[in-house]
Design a protein that fits this description.
Keywords: Cell membrane, Magnesium, Membrane, Metal-binding, Transferase, Transmembrane, Transmembrane helix. This protein has 317 residues and is mainly α. It is built from twelve helices and two strands, in the order αββααααααααααα. Strands 1-2 form a two-stranded antiparallel ribbon. Helix 2 packs antiparallel against helix 7 (159-176), helix 5 runs antiparallel to helix 8 and helix 6 (137-151) packs antiparallel against helix 7.
Amino acid sequence: MTYFALIILLVGIELLYFKIADTYNIIDKPNSRSSHTSITLRGGGIIFPIAISIAFLLGYVSWAVTLAVVLVAVVSFIDDIKPLSQLPRFISHVIAVGLVFYELHLFYEPLWLLPVVFVLLIGWVNAFNFMDGINGITVLYALAAIATFSFLPINKASLPLLITMGLSCLAFGIFNVRKKAKTFAGDVGSISMALFLGYFMIKTIIDSGQLGYILFFSVYGIDAIITIINRLLKKENIFQPHRSHLYQYLANEMGYSHILVAFIYAGFQLGINGLVIYMDANGDLTLLFIGGFLLLLTLIYLLVRNFVTRKMVLGNS
């Protein structure tokens, strides 16, 4: 009954936000870099930091994690309305990562570990944000991650928090997982969700002692890293909007449904997550397997990307 009331509340808050966004013209206008063609309400992902705030009030999550997520959400929301320079955004990310470190007691770990985790977490947050480009992809991928974390016995005590965040995804998904989305997550949604998922990934690895769980983010990670490398080789500004992720090629140039592509990404990641859990249960989730599997996934990705880009070239010739 509590969770039923919560989903109703979250949907109601989302509808209230739509009225506010419509009143104050908080919209996303399509441009040459966009994957959409019509004006859409921006910032519907504000429901994610609202959900974690509710979780805090219910005693499901600590003040440090809540503050970290809300901080990046507030700065990102301002950036959604009126673009900010990189400095305030970076400062908010640094403070948020510091709060995550505090929550997970990482400041007591060897000093060499801190910059490694810092770079990985900042990289993950930005990669997740970069991948937010078509209807449904952010929320479905987040749901796949949350469902996987919820399945692990090590996270049993965190189930109320995970369920709350999962319900916020469902509330947002009602209006986003559509052929014509009513709203987009915006930076406020993608960055706040990325930070939450990043925090939970680190927490799960620490609690379990199993580094292999990092494969839960492998689909996004490989797409983001290969795309960045490809853009650097072309001497492009990687901080500028673009349409060169594989999912963007599939949705924009190849003409596949946004929702279909989003489900493929989330479904493929969910399948990988199931394999990772199976391998771990059998004691086979070793560093050798992790490295070999990442290499295999990268090769598969490159083959698919090469196939798609060649079809695009042939289609334009």
